[in-house]
Amino acid sequence: MSTSSIDRPLQLGDRAPNIVLDAISREGKIALDDFRGRSPLLVGLFRGLHCPFCRRHVAAMAQLNPALKEKGIECLAVIKTPVERARLYFRYHPLPDLLSASDPEGASHRAFGLPILELTENETEWPHKLGMDAVMTMRIDLPGELPEPMNPAAAGDFLEKKDGYKITEADRQIMIAGHMPLIGEFLLDREGVVRWSFTEAEEEGQNVCRAPNPKELMSAASQVAH
User: Fold this and answer.
1) Could you tell me the superkingdom of the organism this chain comes from (predicted)?
2) Pick the CATH number of 20-115+181-225 from 3.30.1330.20, 3.10.450.50, 3.40.30.10, 3.10.105.10
3) What is the chain's percent helix, strand, coil content, to nearest 5?
4) What are phi and psi for residue 65, nearest 5 degrees?
5) Hey, how many other C-beta atoms are within 10 angstroms of the C-beta on 155?
6) Residues 51-89: pLDDT tens digits?
7) pTM score of the predicted model
8) Disulfide engineering: 125 pairs with which of 44, 76, 129, 162, CB 3.0-4.6 Å?
């Protein structure tokens, strides 16, 4: 597995590194090199199943999966949750046909240049530090999920209660106190070159806990599919 890290998220035109991970949705390993020369690939790098926003982002990727497959594009959800824990979760919350892999060490996040955000009291130095004073001014709007726009901390608490997700010891093992790995999605062409991306590291924090716009993603997919 590649464990090298870069100091910024991969940009358009960058070649994605190879990473080799334990498959969640089947036995064995999944490597990014498996797709090179064969098909474009949408890679989603998520915090873990303990994150209510990530659970929704993974489900959203699964919803788009059939339309992307029609364009010849594969999807891979990389989840920072130990593989046995993830397999147990998806046994009860199945996402048919979505390829998924476990990366509890966060090697893929580092390889794609996604930073780990330190949560501070009042010091913000984006994308490495974020003050809780700034968090309280942010608003997440999820119509149908949240009763009103809420700050990320309050929204996360609300969704946890709504979902009834129980944090296990396996979840705690990969959680970093006072820190939050940033997440993102990268659309790679057949040669593994980034052609579109959406990350929480962009936009000075405006993307935190948000998912990409499906129309924008599908528009980019149409370009990559040609």
Assistant:
1) Bacteria
2) 3.40.30.10
3) 35, 25, 45
4) -55, -50
5) 22
6) 999 999 999 999 999 999 999 999 999 999 999 999 999
7) 0.94
8) 129
